[in-house]
Amino acid sequence: MTVQAVKGTRDILPDEARRWQRVEEMARRQFRRYGFREIRTPIFESTELFARGIGEATDIVSKEMYTFTDRGERSLTLRPENTAPVVRAAIEHHLFQRVDCERLYYIGPMFRYERPQKGRMRQFSQIGVEAFGSDAPALDAEVMEMSMVFLEGLGISAATLAVNSVGCKECRGVYREKLREALAGRVGELCVDCQRRYRENPLRILDCKVGCRRLLAHAPTLLDTLDAPCREHFEQVRGTLDLLQVPYQLDPHLVRGLDYYMRTTFEVLGASLGAQDALLGGGRYDGLVEELGGPAVPGFGFACGLDRLVLSLPEPSGPSREVPDVFVAALGDAAWERALLLVRDLRRRDLWVEWEPARGKALKSQARKADRLGARHTLFLGDEELRRGFWTLKTMEGGSQREIPSADLEGLVKELVG
Ligand code: HAM
To answer: What is d(CA 171, CA 405) in angstroms, rounded to the nearest whole number?
Structure first.
């Protein structure tokens, strides 16, 4: 029996990997303009980091983490998200003491034990950004604008920016009580998870995936409950989005699945993913750095699900796969040795070169291989060519055939890239 990929994981084969690279390159290019620099943190961390950072009562921490004990009896967890790890790293390496406006981005795999479906995996990849050091509302708007520019750069234009404010701890304390009041007498109608949420953190009911939210259709929203400073902050965020001409929708029910958020939260919804339609999500998390033992540095960020994003990309207009620039075919021992060197020299000129490493293969079989690979050109080198000092260059498109002097490497390279 063959061994297969584990449920909820996926192989990204070369043709799809090209699309991933395109997304990653776009992210690096766009984020750089806004001053973000890359950080790479470990795939696993102490379990405690996530319990403290994300919140014990969240779905992620209570039932989705890949947690294990290593041989040294440490409780470790494969990172389910990367904001807490980035904050940990920034504290550990005193990044906040050097510049208090550090801007960081990351690209890499995350792990959540969720029910797999289209666009939802147990190992998935995120591209995320974290901007530290300012609680100014314009920072929120600037980073949201960047997320939209990033998607537009990839040709994703039918995406909707949804924004909300979840206020501060005080606002949420008041709101929790309002929710409990609104649900009093109906707790029995909630799912088992939400009955627990009702006791521990009723805000999480707004995030219920099986529909308990409907019981709150007429309940007051968090937005109605904001205190004056949070209300003012949110108004300025919205005002700045307007100034930047970034369209958005207000979604008073947007609470997000992690506890570290305060004030602005947002998601960008794609057009074509059905239930799994959040291409990216994030918000403000002032207080998290302190919670994890660092200084009082505010933060704002988001993470984008790469698996979903790649599914949403428009079909590429070019060829669906990449092909070699040239296949070098040789007949006879002496020609084979010349071919070996030519292959090396062409690769040093940055060309994608294929050949047949086994000596003595029939020309026919080499031509078949060139064909299978879809090489744009084939270079033949046989006895006749060796004696007269030229290569025979065949161009697949159109099937034309030319002779090129073997001393003229430059001329050859020109022909191949031209
Ligand atoms: P999140 O909303 O949990 O936020 O995840 C962000 C994005 O990751 C989602 O919008 C989605 O595109 C993708 N994603 C999440 N779970 C899965 C999954 N199982 N399969 C495929 N894609 C998935 C965070 O992780 C926060 N750390 C974002 C953040 C950064 N907030 C502030 N800074």
So the answer is: 79
